[in-house]
Amino acid sequence: MAILQLGSIEAGGTKFVCAVGNEDYRTLDKVRIPTTTPEETLDKTVAYFKKFPDLKAIAISSFGPIELRRNSPKYGFITDTPKKGWANTDFLGRLKQDFDIPMAWTTDVNGSAYGEYVTSTLFNEKINSLVYFTIGTGVGAGAVIDGKFVGSMGHPEVGHVRLKRHPDDLDFPGICPFHGDCLEGLVSGPTFDARLGKPGKDVPLTDHVWDIMAYYVAQAALQETLLLRPDKIVFGGGVVSEPFLVKVRAEFAKLLNGYVDVGDLTDYIVMPLVKENGSATLGDYALALKEYNK
Amino acid sequence: MAILQLGSIEAGGTKFVCAVGNEDYRTLDKVRIPTTTPEETLDKTVAYFKKFPDLKAIAISSFGPIELRRNSPKYGFITDTPKKGWANTDFLGRLKQDFDIPMAWTTDVNGSAYGEYVTSTLFNEKINSLVYFTIGTGVGAGAVIDGKFVGSMGHPEVGHVRLKRHPDDLDFPGICPFHGDCLEGLVSGPTFDARLGKPGKDVPLTDHVWDIMAYYVAQAALQETLLLRPDKIVFGGGVVSEPFLVKVRAEFAKLLNGYVDVGDLTDYIVMPLVKENGSATLGDYALALKEYNK
Ligand SMILES: Nc1ncnc2c1ncn2[C@@H]1O[C@H](COP(=O)(O)OP(=O)(O)O)[C@@H](O)[C@H]1O
Ligand SMILES: Nc1ncnc2c1ncn2[C@@H]1O[C@H](COP(=O)(O)OP(=O)(O)O)[C@@H](O)[C@H]1O
Ligand SMILES: [Zn+2]
Ligand SMILES: [Zn+2]
């Protein structure tokens, strides 16, 4: 039996992870390309995939904001990103110059959400909907309902909601250049540096700032719960660890106060099933396969 | 040509509005039944629809919480409502005792959301998704994406999210018995009585409390915007008026700060298209028709 080759591009602000896998979601080959200029980075990406002439489809999970309305002339573009040089980049168009195969195009967090959704199903969890949060340099989330991404005007931008401030954190103005104390302005990785003058990895979990973080992240989970009623909320990104999620679950339970039933919290608010930040790559294989089968 | 008769039950905590309409969403007959005990109210409801032997389907938009997971033994029930006598009421089961026709079952706000969604489409708006908020005795919202309701674990309960407090409202504890200062605890109709000792209809729009209300309601709209990216957000309920929405739009614009494009705010944050609280009844006709055509 011939093995189907499927391409994945996880396009991040620091690096691109390009990989080739098969319909069993197994990675056959993988490479990291540093994110420099769009021209250089996309040329290297194209050159990499040229080595796989049997490639059947490619899926791209990109940092954003991106245009994903198919009826837009900018479909496939990275739009008004603050990342230097990358605003208004025709990402998909560049790939189409060299490859005449089906392509899927979505956000990094949507790709991760899809990977976790597919993996949950493979693990026989009864999942119809899932939210994937990343809490890293920025904060974002992707959501899948019945195999489709949420967002018809555009992709979600949950990093910029407002929250009830923690009583012990009222003086911190937040670091979002657009909103100050939005979710991202209060809990992204760089908030550790802003609050304490050192990176989060050097702040022990006994520090009270982690309780404050948990209070905010729990409110974000609460919003998704009450607006979407998903079956599961997955948290990834550099800031997140299982001990941190223990705190998040405790705050979430207090905030929800039993108002709706979400089942066992240890199954509801969870770390990714796919290890080593592989959720988006796996999601991409699944999205590429879906595009190929269309 | 025979006219299709479709039944609508808008089941509220104060009254049931029962109506019969046709596939053009025109009302042929309508009656109000006060909400007393489940037995009496549902008996009267059944008796009303018995007068229409040609009825082809019925849709119910009910106050909640309700069970809408079809695989649940309690599907069709009003579940743990605080409304006296109504907890654990087999609403759909009672109707099925007397009618052997297709029935749709959803929440009051979902019914309204669907009515507005259908009407928007009839008005040639390009709408793929819509959120309907009610701000009345309680606060809730329903959401439709591509013709389907959002919520796979259960229906949304957006009334209980937390918000950034307005600097001039920090001392008000909120009135939600479960959460204090959740959205409903801060902006439902009875908060006027709690804050000012008089009902909202007696508080002029020049009163600063309306700015505070607008700040919170704008945050609720912001959450829906950033989590769902809907095409339109409709506000109904006794507290809402067009002059109030003018304030809400202004606060929303400040909070969003141009971060995502939602188009013209006067088309995005709007009053219902269907007049006289008729959104749910119209939505019910459409849902009943859909059930009939299945
Ligand atoms: N153990 C940790 N605790 C808290 N924050 C951390 C930890 N490790 C990394 N971070 C923070 O996470 C952010 C990077 O997140 P990551 O998800 O790895 O990358 P990115 O979001 O850029 O893709 C940085 O701000 C970093 O300081
Ligand atoms: N003009 C008004 N301004 C502010 N609040 C109002 C106004 N009219 C009614 N209300 C409040 O709205 C609530 C009733 O909301 P409504 O949507 O009519 O009913 P319900 O939510 O019970 O179905 C009450 O708390 C009432 O005080
Ligand atoms: Zn922000
Ligand atoms: Zn509440």
Number of helices of chain A: 9
Second rung of CATH, namely the architecture of the largest domain in chain A: 2-Layer Sandwich
The overall number of domains of chain A is: 2
The CATH topology label of the largest domain in chain A is: Nucleotidyltransferase, domain 5
Rough shape of chain A?
A: globular
CATH class of the largest domain in chain A: Alpha Beta
Largest interface pair: A-B, 46 and 46 residues
Kindly report the name of the CATH homologous superfamily of the largest domain in chain A.
Answer: ATPase, nucleotide binding domain
Query: Bound compounds, please?
Result: adenosine-5'-diphosphate, zinc ion
Strand portion of chain A, in percent? 15-25%
Helix proportion range of chain A:
25-40%
Average pLDDT of chain A works out at: 97
EC number (chains A, B): 2.7.1.4
Pfam family, one (chains A, B): ROK
Protein name (chains A, B): Fructokinase
InterPro entries (chains A, B): ATPase_NBD, Carb_Metab_Reg_Kinase/Isom, ROK, ScrK
Topology overview:
The structure is a homodimer of 294-residue chains.
Chain A: E1 5-11, E2 15-21, E3 27-34, H1 38-50, E4 55-62, E5 77-78, E6 89-90, H2 91-98, E7 103-107, H3 108-122, E8 129-135, E9 139-145, E10 148-149, H4 183-187, H5 190-196, H6 209-228, E11 233-236, H7 242-256, H8 265-268, E12 269-270, H9 279-293
Parallel strand pairs in A: 1-4, 4-7, 8-11, 11-12
Antiparallel strand pairs in A: 1-2, 2-3, 5-6, 8-9, 9-10
Bound molecules: adenosine-5'-diphosphate (2 copies) and zinc ion (2 copies).
